[in-house]
Amino acid sequence: MIANTPAPPYYAVIFSSQRTADDQGYGQAAKRMLELAREQPGFLGVESAREDGLGITVSYWKSEAAILAWKQQAEHRAVREQGRATWYAAFHTRVCKVERAYAFQT
């Protein structure tokens, strides 16, 4: 589903990942992280896609401070460590400021 974001400016965190072969609780942890992110002040929405082990998740935030607070959230921090140890062969995180946004919808 496409996130319904406000008028810019706002921020996007792009998380690109290559998964390992075993699930080992990944699905449950991903669902919990989405629930938890939605509770965070400044969270605006999320979009995610995965195919053949490659995943791209874009989360949208009101401010850089909100992104930092999410990064420091204790449960999220623990799950990130588990991701490094178990679920991901590689990942990249990119933080961007959205200055313009366009939409089309039928």
Task: Considering the chains and any ligands shown, give keywords for the structure.
single chain; 106 residues; alpha+beta; Alpha-Beta Plaits; 4 strands
**How many discrete domains?**
1
The main pleated sheet reads as: 4 strands, antiparallel
- In the predicted model, the low-confidence regions spanning at least 5 consecutive residues are none
The CATH topology turns out to be Alpha-Beta Plaits
The CA-CA distance between the termini, in Å, is 15 Å
Q: Helix segment count? A: 3
Assign the CATH architecture: 2-Layer Sandwich
Q: Give me the count of strands.
A: 4
Query: What is the strand arrangement across the widest sheet?
Result: 2-3-1-4
Shape: globular
Could you tell me the mean pLDDT? 96
Gyration radius from CA atoms, angstroms:
14 Å
Oligomer: single chain
Label the structural class.
alpha+beta
Q: Strand share of the residues?
A: 35-45%
User: Percent range for helical residues?
Assistant: 25-40%
Order of helices and strands: EHEEHHE
Concise summary:
This protein is of the alpha+beta class.
Description:
This protein has 106 residues and is of the alpha+beta class. It has a single domain, classed as Alpha-Beta Plaits (2-Layer Sandwich), CATH 3.30.70.100. It is 35% helix and 36% strand. It contains 3 helices and 4 strands; from the N terminus they run βαββααβ. It has helices at residues 26-39, 64-72, 74-87, and strands at residues 10-19, 43-51, 54-61, 88-98. Strands 2-3-1-4 form a 4-stranded antiparallel sheet. The chain is globular and about 40 Å long.
